[in-house]
């Protein structure tokens, strides 16, 4: 058992995936490729690339061919019957932007965070009825993606003010970008800016999903955690693809900060405050390598439009894992919202993009959601490791609640 290795990239393994001796990363790569229906060009052109875990640029074409050669299989779930299309008004003119004027920004207020005040753990019969009526009404009467666009832009405006204040206060160094004003982030600043994003995310959920504010506290927290960790990864990929099309070594870390994925020394410039520095550095590097693989795969997917980006925000909320133990009513409402998004997307593809076959684009979005879900699970594991092994954030009630199991 100790000598078993992945048949594809040669890393040591202890369990099988997809019925074959494969590591989790290779199995996930194959699954995403099948779902998205992607085919890749060979990096060298001769179909003889070496597939090893620590290769800087692993050839996806040869990796996928190796999966097929060794008979790795993944069965796509059966397609649901198509739903009848509704009349939907689509407005895709407005586009989110990270550009802002530094002179108009004010210093950030102290970063505080609080989840909504606790309510009764069970909904009354009247609350349950009102929740169902409200959800049905909002699904039938207005554009969910238009509402998401409006609330997302408001969320960005609130974050930009605080990010600029933080950048000025902590003297983050500018990054040389040809068109945008970005700054270089590091370990401490990344998680401080992530707090800002999370603190300002609750109004978005409350205003986009009308049933959210009616839920008991415990369900609000569960759905918030399910959404924010996942969508933060999608947002990272969206802005990375938008601003660093030709630089696959860079990642957007927030609306105004970026980082070089492999430059761990700069990423960990604040390690003096941590115990067991070298062990911490090694652990952090390991997580960064896993993120690099996941994000690298996602950034190679097809470009998404702004309208699709707003759809991914909603789908992040609706993608509810069965392990979350939420009520059937919440799952039912999430499924109805998910159906609404797909209806609006289909109308958008037909009327705006003039597409007749958009199955590939929908598959691309679902692959993005899957990749973001894996990255979110990795982030939970990462934060729990920092808290237990290195005593980082262990006294932070915010992180304890958001990153707890």
UniProtKB/TrEMBL annotation:
<dbReference type="InterPro" id="IPR001628">
    <property type="entry name" value="Znf_hrmn_rcpt"/>
</dbReference>
<keyword id="KW-0805">Transcription regulation</keyword>
<keyword id="KW-0862">Zinc</keyword>
<dbReference type="GO" id="GO:0003700">
    <property type="term" value="F:DNA-binding transcription factor activity"/>
</dbReference>
<feature type="region of interest" description="Disordered">
    <location>
        <begin position="95"/>
        <end position="127"/>
    </location>
</feature>
<dbReference type="Pfam" id="PF00105">
    <property type="entry name" value="zf-C4"/>
</dbReference>
<dbReference type="InterPro" id="IPR013088">
    <property type="entry name" value="Znf_NHR/GATA"/>
</dbReference>
<dbReference type="GO" id="GO:0005634">
    <property type="term" value="C:nucleus"/>
</dbReference>
<feature type="domain" description="Nuclear receptor">
    <location>
        <begin position="3"/>
        <end position="82"/>
    </location>
</feature>
<dbReference type="InterPro" id="IPR035500">
    <property type="entry name" value="NHR-like_dom_sf"/>
</dbReference>
<keyword id="KW-0675">Receptor</keyword>
<dbReference type="Pfam" id="PF00104">
    <property type="entry name" value="Hormone_recep"/>
</dbReference>
<keyword id="KW-0539">Nucleus</keyword>
<feature type="domain" description="NR LBD">
    <location>
        <begin position="143"/>
        <end position="405"/>
    </location>
</feature>
<keyword id="KW-0479">Metal-binding</keyword>
<dbReference type="GO" id="GO:0043565">
    <property type="term" value="F:sequence-specific DNA binding"/>
</dbReference>
<dbReference type="InterPro" id="IPR000536">
    <property type="entry name" value="Nucl_hrmn_rcpt_lig-bd"/>
</dbReference>
<keyword id="KW-0863">Zinc-finger</keyword>
<feature type="compositionally biased region" description="Low complexity">
    <location>
        <begin position="96"/>
        <end position="112"/>
    </location>
</feature>
<keyword id="KW-0238">DNA-binding</keyword>
<keyword id="KW-0804">Transcription</keyword>
<dbReference type="GO" id="GO:0008270">
    <property type="term" value="F:zinc ion binding"/>
</dbReference>
<protein>
    <recommendedName>
        <fullName>Nuclear receptor</fullName>
    </recommendedName>
</protein>
């Amino acid at each position: 058992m100790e000598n078993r290795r992945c048949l594809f990239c040669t890393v040591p393994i202890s369990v099988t995936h997809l019925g074959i001796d494969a590591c989790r990363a290779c199995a996930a790569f194959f699954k995403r490729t099948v779902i998205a229906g992607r085919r890749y060009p060979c990096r060298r052109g001769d179909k003889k690339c070496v597939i090893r875990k620590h290769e800087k640029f692993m050839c996806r074409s040869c990796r996928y061919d190796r999966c097929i050669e060794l008979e790795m299989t993944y069965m796509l779930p059966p397609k649901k019957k198509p739903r009848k299309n509704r009349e939907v008004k689509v407005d895709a003119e407005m586009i989110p932007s990270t550009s802002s004027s530094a002179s108009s920004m004010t210093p950030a207020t102290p970063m505080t965070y609080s989840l909504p005040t606790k309510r009764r753990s069970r909904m009354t019969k009247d609350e349950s009825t009102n929740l169902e009526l409200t959800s049905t009404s909002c699904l039938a009467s207005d554009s969910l993606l238009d509402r998401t666009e409006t609330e997302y832009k408001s969320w960005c405006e609130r974050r930009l003010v605080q990010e600029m204040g933080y950048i000025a206060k902590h003297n983050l160094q500018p990054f040389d970008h040809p068109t945008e004003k970005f700054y270089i982030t590091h370990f401490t600043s990344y998680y401080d800016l992530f707090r800002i994003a999370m603190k300002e995310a609750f109004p978005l959920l409350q205003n986009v999903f009308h049933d959210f504010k009616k839920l008991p506290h415990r369900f609000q927290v569960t759905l918030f955690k399910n959404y924010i960790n996942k969508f933060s990864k999608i947002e990272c990929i969206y802005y990375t693809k938008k601003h660093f099309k030709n630089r696959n070594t860079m990642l957007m870390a927030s609306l105004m900060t970026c980082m070089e994925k492999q430059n761990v020394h700069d990423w960990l410039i604040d390690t003096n405050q941590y115990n067991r520095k070298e062990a911490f550095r090694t652990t952090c590097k390991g997580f960064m390598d896993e993120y690099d693989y996941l994000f690298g795969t996602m950034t190679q997917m097809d470009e998404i439009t702004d309208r699709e980006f707003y759809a991914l925000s909603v789908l992040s909320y609706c993608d509810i894992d069965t392990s979350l133990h939420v009520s059937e009513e919440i799952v039912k409402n999430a499924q109805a919202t998910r159906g609404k998004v797909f209806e609006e997307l289909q109308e958008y593809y037909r009327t705006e993009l003039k597409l007749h076959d958009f199955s590939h684009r929908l598959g691309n979005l679902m692959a993005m959601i899957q990749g973001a879900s894996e990255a979110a699970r990795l982030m939970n594991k990462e934060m729990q490791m920092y808290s237990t092994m290195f005593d980082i954030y262990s006294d932070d009630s915010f992180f304890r609640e958001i990153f707890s199991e």
